What we know:
Blueprint lengths: L17 H19 L6 E2 L2 E2 L2 H16 L4 H21 L1
Antiparallel strand pairs: 1-2
Helix pairs in contact: 1-2, 2-3
Amino acid sequence: MKVFPKKPKSTPSVQHNQKWIFRELSNINNFRNRLAHHEPICFKGVIKDTGYARNIHQSIFELLNYMNVDTASVFSHFSDQVIAVCDEIDKL
């Protein structure tokens, strides 16, 4: 867990341990797989919902912060684009 020096401390209600990190990374990987296979991530029939994409975006941002990565310089342009696209989809 030395890769995540800024990870939050565990509490009785939330265990920020290796299992928790693996679950977060697995969720991000599942999202990546859906993108790679051109599966819809914001649309299910006539329903549109950007919550899934926004949650994954937030998870990536948080994990990078836990790794002590300067997310402002590395992630800012990409982050702005993700939010802008999600906002546009929400307006449809």
